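Our preliminary data section would be incomplete without showing what the modeling component actually yields. Below, a chain of 549 amino acids is followed by its predicted structure, encoded as tokens that our downstream tools consume directly.
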Amino acid sequence: MKKLLLFVLLLVYGSSFSQNYKITYVKSSNGTMIENQDPVWVFTNVKYTLLTSQNTRYQKGNFPFEETTIDRSKNSYSQTALLSDLKIIVTTDSLSLAKQTFEYLNDTKKILGYNCKKAKTIVNSNTIEFWYTEDLKVKGSPSILGQNLGLVLEMVRNGNFVIAATKVEKIDALPYFRKAQKTVDGLTYKDLLWKSRFTTINVFKDQIINFSDQSKSNDTILRFANGTIALRKVKIPEIKIGSQIFVDVTEQSNGDAYDRTGSFFIIPTNKATSFLDGLKNGAKTLPIYNNGNGKEYQGVAATENYNPVVELMRFYTPFGVKQYNTLQLKDKTWAENVLYRQDVSDLRSLLSNQEVWIGINIGNYDKGGHKVSANITIHDEEESKAIPTQIVPLFCTNNIMEMAGQEYGTMFSSDKGLEVNFKLEKPMKSCKLRYITTGHGGWENGDEFVPKKNTIFLDGKEAFSFTPWRQDCGSYRLSNPASGNFPNGLSSSDYSRANWCPGTVTNPIFIDLGNLETGNHSIQITIPQGLPEGTSFSSWNVSGVLIGE
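Predicted structure:
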């Protein structure tokens, strides 16, 4: 048990003048009691009400712990949160209780032997009904709502979620919070409380990703490919199975006006050679993939001694957000930045309790480039039926080292496309290929603007095929101030593309591959890549990892 004295003191308020009560409430949904719940506790008399819970009172479970105290004489309430053993914050609201409005109904019923009346209100499109009693001459509620009705013994939200009193007890003492260490405004309180509920790992903060020979590494962050790649080693704590893991990147132009490919990625280092060797010693030192089309592709496919990068998130910058917001158009208010956020919980085993190299890249040739911040957040789940998984990195043709000579993903000009051979040391069940694909070639006949079918083969047999295509690009116009406008009334950023839009994340798809036995296997990707025209050519950025039980 954590130190209870850091959290509460016991005082008796008005014990000689009014009775003190403790009310216990439980929750149910759709007529079924919620399992393993934390009962709500309300302590009240004519002067004060304390809204808390059993676990909060005894500090069982994880931080934060939160309680609300209502001062009846001031018609105000204070919310106090214990964020850690040593940090308590409080905020006071003297206006909200008086602003609550209710419709008083004629319905009556008895709850636990007390005569109850009914009232209702609507909050954020939710209908909330209250059954309250005036028999005990005290007020209170299992929520901040309804505190002045009387003593609320039952709350019903939208007819299917119920918080109901199971016991009303007379008590001698009314507990309350000790004085908090820090008083904050309401918005700050909510922000600090919210952020204390999950773990945030700050990977990059206002990092410039540009093209310049002046881009240098420091003690924390390594820079490669003339500044277009930033890399650092990050210690990730143990992540419970079933927890939710998110990555987020915030981007704005720092000079570059164009839509660019971006990647937030990790570098596996569990084999003799890694992508980090290529960053340090040049792309030509990485394993070469050949498929007979006359080109050499560095570091794109797994081998016995090498794993390619694993893309946490593929994203695309818009046309000049922030830097070019001075390009005004009637009735258009440009965004200040773009936030990309994606669930990567499926990659837990590559992150949990490990020290990993995490990088970010935006391919560009601009000295100002882009400014980015990137984070990983970990959100524990109370209960989960998730099953531990194995992850096998297979391929990544996104040429993250483009500005250091890594070849574009043009191997799909050959019928063979991309073929990766891999060996499983033990069987894997319920396998899925986490597959990210985007087509490029930015002219009328380029694969960026022409739908092309992707076909995936497993061990020589077709496993799946689909045509990746995005038709919602016009939704992101306000992130694209520097997008070129055409005589037909469209802007460049409006046009549909091969599974990406300027200013968006490209989500992975998950392809079922069934159960795989121990031994050798192969994955092949074929795409009918378009022919080059003059100096223009098409390419495909595809990446894939195998995930299985």
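Helices lie at 54-58, 96-99, 186-195, 275-281, 348-351. The first strand starts at residue 8 and ends at 11. Preliminary results of this kind motivate Aim 1 of the renewal.
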